[in-house]
């Protein structure tokens, strides 16, 4: 994958990691624009290539009464407005084959959720749109097995693939990140570390996923030191009241300080 092939992406010559960040789900236009404005301000200041992330719908829910979205077209139009307002690319996840072509009309990167990354029809449908495809490593998959997911994209005639590690299941209610997988997966495609989802604590008896946001900086620092190409973080100005994944999101107020520290680590790594 070539980063500069992603439309509207900036700062690609800065030597920094790239960043996919935004809310878990699009809850409305005002919140999306508010978050995007702040992240764009920070990433421009730090010369970080930035992609706005927001799910137009949430299909993988523990409970039937969990928030799933505000309506597909409404959310996708908000993603387009974010892109047009701030001149940044956008990414959203898809869950069904029919989602691929629909979402591709509005966003620049199609993301395959970890639970669905072995679904050949879905991966191929995303690849066939010509958009960059972000393949999330299944929580149940080895780093080595991700080469087959990447090959599905490439064999479909699309060279724009990346892999995102979002942790591996450890028991029933915890996740771990095996950093040995980073250099392994970099042999197949650029590697992104999903910091916030790696700190989820799934399968809670309440049916609401827990998390360890206090460990975000620890995991992010380790990822940059290990040499990941990009970072993925979900952030919100009010995580406690976010409609999805609030338990493991980073408060927007802490993002600049965190990224400043991570850029310093990256510069040190680049100088070695």
Automatic annotation (TrEMBL):
Domain spans labelled DAHP synthetase I/KDSA:
12-263
GO term, biological process aspect, one: lipopolysaccharide biosynthetic process
Similarity comment = Belongs to the KdsA family.
- What is this enzyme's catalytic activity, as reactions? D-arabinose 5-phosphate + phosphoenolpyruvate + H2O = 3-deoxy-alpha-D-manno-2-octulosonate-8-phosphate + phosphate
Report the pathway entry.
Bacterial outer membrane biogenesis; lipopolysaccharide biosynthesis; Carbohydrate biosynthesis; 3-deoxy-D-manno-octulosonate biosynthesis; 3-deoxy-D-manno-octulosonate from D-ribulose 5-phosphate: step 2/3
Q: Which domain of life is it from?
A: Bacteria
| Matches recorded under Gene3D superfamilies | Aldolase class I
Q: What is its EC number?
A: 2.5.1.55
Q: Where in the cell is it found?
A: Cytoplasm
Recorded hits in InterPro entries, A to Z, give: Aldolase_TIM, DAHP1/KDSA, KDO8P_synthase
Q: Which GO terms describe its molecular function?
A: 3-deoxy-8-phosphooctulonate synthase activity
Its keywords, alphabetically, are: Cytoplasm, Transferase
Pfam families attached here?
DAHP_synth_1
**Protein name in UniProt:** 3-deoxy-8-phosphooctulonate synthase
Example of a GO cellular component annotation carried by this entry: cytoplasm
